[in-house]
Amino acid sequence: MHSSPLFFLFALLATLLLFVFSILAHELGHAAVVALLLGRRAVFEIRAGSLTFLRWKKMAVGILPIWGYVRFDEDKASMADWRLIFAAGPAASVLTAYFFLGLHYLPFAENWRQVFFIMAMANFALAGFNLVPIPPLDGWKIAESYLPLIGVNLTKEGRARLYKWGMVFITVASFMFIFLSGFYKG
């Protein structure tokens, strides 16, 4: 067991970067399908994480793995395009999970193998959680693409309100989960 503050700082930064990499892979999945269906210029911004430390062309990467998104020309996308676009992020997370799982089985030091296994499970969880139909998660956006078929057409203002309250719900539910289950029970 390492007790060095420098080792702890390295481990913390490495973990944050791996989580940000996971979110970036998820968002790049969305962006790739947007570019494929609507053209590269339809992608306005790709963001993964908060507190930006890297900005390159349309991409911004932050150190805190809290949130990510792709801004694109939504008016150009049909509802069928939405289904593909918003399924692509969770699909990319599953591929990223298998990438980390593959690293887990390579002959790395045991602590790195554990990190890769945890990252694989975190990416499977990211994919599954994002498919829950709560605004603004991908699952909701896929479900939302079917609403016009039953005569429900959301305005941009209505969608923004749903997304705002969905974020409030996700934040409160996350804190309640952490409060009730604790941070770590080793």
TrEMBL record:
Q: Write down the InterPro entries for this protein, in alphabetical order.
A: Metallopeptidase_M50B (IPR052348), Peptidase_M50 (IPR008915)
Q: Which UniProt keywords apply?
A: Membrane, Transmembrane, Transmembrane helix
Segments forming domain Peptidase M50: 15-104, 110-171
How does the UniProt record describe the way this protein sits in the membrane?
Answer: Multi-pass membrane protein
CDD domains for the chain: S2P-M50 (cd05709)
Residues of the signal peptide: none
Tell me where in or outside the cell this protein is found.
Membrane
A Pfam family it matches = Peptidase_M50
Biological process, per Gene Ontology: proteolysis
State the protein's name: M50 family metallopeptidase
Annotated source species: Acidithiobacillus ferrivorans
